Predict the 3D structure of the following.
Amino acid sequence: MDMHGTVVYAIGDVHGCLDELRALEDRIVRDAQRFSGRRIIIMLGDYVDRGPHSRRVIDHLMGPPPKGFLRVCLAGNHEVALLLYLDGYLSRETWLGYGGRETLFSYGVDPDRLISLYGSSEQADARIREAIPASHIDFLRTLPAMVCSDEWVFVHAGIRPGVSLEAQDEADLLNIREEFFQASHRLDRWVVHGHTIVDVPTLDGRRLDIDTGAFQTGRLTALRIVGKYGRLLSSQD
């Protein structure tokens, strides 16, 4: 991605928090008025689970971005977990414990009631799968795992140290923690990510984690990048 002449706003993990996302987008639109050139919003993944409005968040992200902006949505590990369950590679119990219960509530499905009706059966899974629109599933399947420029990397969890960007494993991009954190001072690009909740985003070497746990705190965070300079914005500003 060419970031020359571009203002980029990276947004951390949403987790079903539509009100916070709308508030942050409003803040971004106001902030961007001072800049000319291209404007891009990069969503860092984890749109579903844990918070109350997963379905509405997906609807929102499938719709048009704020006027005058492009929007790129990356995959998070929670989107992949949902797809793994739907495709039969992850058990219902595991997915529900992962935050899928809240996601199903947002689609009007009570999994406990379904299980009481059908038992732990394929019928219950079939009803759950029917509740999620095919358009949402198709959208989630198209999400890339990483966007990068000559100096910046945008990714959900982080990157594997010592591995070229072209050779990164998607499982690392979506899930890595400690190995990435320990190498933060040896990175050759700035890496903006989410996945691990922090109270206050703080630069650690050349990485910045902007997941402020919106579903717990009500605070969704964005990083605005212009050239080599960044500024944090919050849905609570």
Summary: The chain has ten helices and nine strands. The longest strand covers residues 6-11. The chain has a mean pLDDT of 95. The radius of gyration is 18 Å.
